[in-house]
Design a protein that fits this description.
Helix content is 33%, strand content 12%. The protein is α/β, with parallel strands linked by helices. The protein folds into 3 domains: 272 residues, Response regulator (Rossmann fold, 3-Layer(aba) Sandwich); 28 residues, no CATH class; 152 residues, IlvD/EDD C-terminal domain-like (Glucose Oxidase, domain 1, 3-Layer(bba) Sandwich). The strands form 4 sheets. A 6-stranded mixed sheet has the order 12-11-10-9-13-14. Strands 2-1-3-4 form a 4-stranded parallel sheet, with helices on both faces. A two-stranded antiparallel ribbon has the order 5-6. The structure holds FE2/S2 (inorganic) cluster and magnesium ion. The site of FE2/S2 (inorganic) cluster has 10 residues, from loops. InterPro entries: Dihydro-acid_dehy_C, DiOHA_6PGluconate_deHydtase_CS, ILV_EDD_C, ILV_EDD_N, IlvD/EDD_N, Sugar_Degrad_Dehydratases.
Length: 571
């Protein structure tokens, strides 16, 4: 006898409630046998025209459905909030936890047995995983896939990364505004996510490294027919996963998170992975802390993609994609044993992988850069931690002491950064306050603030920048991020004044404000937080309950999970 499925608590009842659940679903033309006890698979879709990166997900959902039907399941697609990274103000990150709530409550309230998560753009992948992990039904990811390589004037150009470069070139007088505008159309040539190793491709790569998607999911271009085939196979697989009872909590173990941290170093992944992995770990109850990210510090950069390298995701795909990276990690003895959506061990994803271009995916013994993983910095300026991505930084600045120039908030920075009389030199350390989770709110990607115009004109392209915000996964530079506690929460960052000296040592993991204790205490006594920018609605809830960066900026009451079946009926 087979165990009664979860969905049968909706569709298997021979009473008024069962009548209601089935009858209204039948208005879409589903026959009786769709409700005969077969696995009902939710397809959780973040498709939206306002999330261009996810605009291909409608087609992929159809491919998933074919696979579900083929395996004897019943697919039902449902929308959840979509987060368009490039379109939402003040930042899509403000809404990641709202998407996670939407996903969690939708899965819990509906009569489904398993879920296929269709996401791609930066915050959609973590938001969906967090929500799904908190209900813990069998779940599997199909990502949007990257856009085709950007092309302009015969050259490859990368999402985000070349926007930052071109924008600086215009400010330096090295590029005309006309050329700048013309590059716009060449950068985004197809559906899909940023084709640099930005946050979207980073998260897709880590999802694959954690075994939450089928192999090759991360790099196949959005418009490659093989992605639709992968979606079809994923639809087949989720039906089997429901029968096997294979849940996110079986897959997302400490070892899986460690594999993600190692993979993040090897692919030159986004700093944003830190907050997303920490938040996800909080949902599944894995004890992951900022210090665990040290694990990646000595891992070399293997994937030669922007922003840390020169190629793009299409090249990464054709070179062999994530299976090759995992094989390199496995050969070097780094890949941890962990289960995957296929039921077996993650090593199966690496077995038999072949590298077709060893300039795009370098071998462990001859990497793009050695010791490329993120570094965690601590000290009296960041008692609860901060991070830096050395692979995208200037080596000279990784050990540096300099004078701070402080911007009190984003408006201050925008109004003054290009002043001709700004008292800064290439050795100045730029400090930006008020861009943390509570402060902005939502911890936006503004930590890579522009280089002051007067220095850009002198040819300066990098400086140390410190903030409580994040930066885009497509960005680069010697940028110290996620300083915790944030300034709005009264962290020491709030006390920094222009002219103070700051010492940075990436090799020692240190970030110190060289101001004596008595002076800091006096400043602290005189400090008051800014008035919050929002006083109602979700944003108020967010400001009041958001955790600091080292806890993944989740809302405090969302940590953990609730896997109970809802038994009360609506009528
Ligand atoms: Fe959506 Fe980059 S903006 S993936
Ligand atoms: Mg982003």
């Amino acid at each position: 006898m087979t165990k009664k499925r979860r969905s049968q608590n909706w569709y298997g009842k021979l009473d008024k409630d069962g009548f209601i659940h089935r009858s209204w679903m039948k208005n879409q033309g589903f026959p009786d046998h769709a409700f005969d006890g077969r696995p009902i698979i939710g397809i959780c879709n973040t498709w939206s025209e306002l999330t261009p990166c996810n605009s291909g997900l409608r087609d992929l959902a159809e491919a998933v459905k074919r696979g579900v039907w083929e395996a004897g399941g019943f697919p039902v697609e449902f929308p959840v909030m979509s987060l368009g990274e490039t379109q939402m103000k003040p930042t899509a990150m403000l809404f990641r936890n709202l998407l996670a709530m939407d996903v969690e409550e939708s899965i819990r309230a509906y009569g489904i047995d398993g879920v296929v998560l269709l996401g791609g753009c930066d915050k959609t992948t973590p938001g969906q995983l967090m929500g799904a992990a908190s209900v813990d039904l069998p779940s599997i990811v199909v990502s949007s896939g990257p856009m085709l390589n950007g092309k302009w004037k015969g050259k490859d150009i990368g999402s985000g990364t070349d926007v930052w470069k071109f924008s600086e070139a215009v400010r330096a007088g090295d590029m005309t505004l006309q050329d700048f505008m013309a590059a716009e159309s060449g950068m985004s040539r197809s559906k899909g996510v940023c084709m640099t190793m930005g946050t979207a491709s980073t998260m897709a790569s880590l999802v694959e490294a954690m075994g939450m998607s089928l192999p090759t999911n991360a790099a196949l271009p959005a418009v490659d027919a093989r992605r639709a085939a992968l979606a079809h196979l994923t639809g087949k697989r989720i039906v089997e996963m429901v029968d096997e009872g294979l849940k996110p909590s079986d897959i997302l173990t400490k070892e899986a998170f460690e594999n993600a941290i190692l993979a993040n170093a090897a692919v030159g992944g986004s700093t944003n992975a830190v907050v997303h992995l920490l938040a996800l770990a909080g949902r599944v109850g894995v004890d992951l802390s900022l210090s665990d990210f040290e694990l990646g510090s000595d891992i070399p950069l293997l994937v030669n993609c922007m922003p840390s390298g020169k190629y793009l995701m299409e090249d990464f795909c054709y070179a062999g994609g994530m299976p090759v990276v995992m094989q390199e990690l496995a050969k070097a003895g780094h890949l941890r044993a962990a289960r995957t959506v296929l039921g077996g061990d993650i090593n199966a994803y690496a077995d038999g992988a072949e590298c077709y271009n060893d300039d795009v995916i370098k071998p462990f013994a001859d990497p793009v850069k050695s010791a490329a993983g993120l570094r965690v910095l601590r000290g009296n300026l960041a008692p609860n931690g901060a991070i830096i991505k050395p692979s995208a930084a200037t080596d000279r600045l990784l050990e540096h002491e300099g004078e701070a120039f402080v911007f009190e908030n984003i408006e201050d920075m925008k109004a003054n950064i290009d002043r001709d009389d700004l008292p800064v030199t290439p050795d100045t350390i730029l400090v930006l306050k008020g861009v943390g989770p509570k402060g902005y709110p939502g911890m936006p990607e503004v930590g890579n603030m522009p280089i002051p115009a007067k220095l850009v004109r002198e040819g300066v392209r990098d400086m140390i920048r410190i903030s409580d915000g994040r930066m885009s996964g497509t960005a680069y530079g010697t940028v110290i991020l996620h300083v915790s506690p944030e300034s709005q929460a009264g962290g020491p960052l709030a006390l920094v004044k222009t002219g103070d000296r700051i010492r940075v040592s990436a090799s020692n993991g240190k970030l110190d404000l060289l101001v004596d204790e008595a002076e800091l205490e006096a400043r602290c006594a005189a400090w008051t937080p800014d008035k919050p920018h929002y006083t109602r609605g979700y944003a108020k809830l967010y400001i009041d309950t958001v955790l600091q960066a080292e806890h993944g900026a989740d809302l405090d009451f969302l940590v953990g999970k609730d896997t109970r079946l809802v038994t009360r009926e609506s009528h």
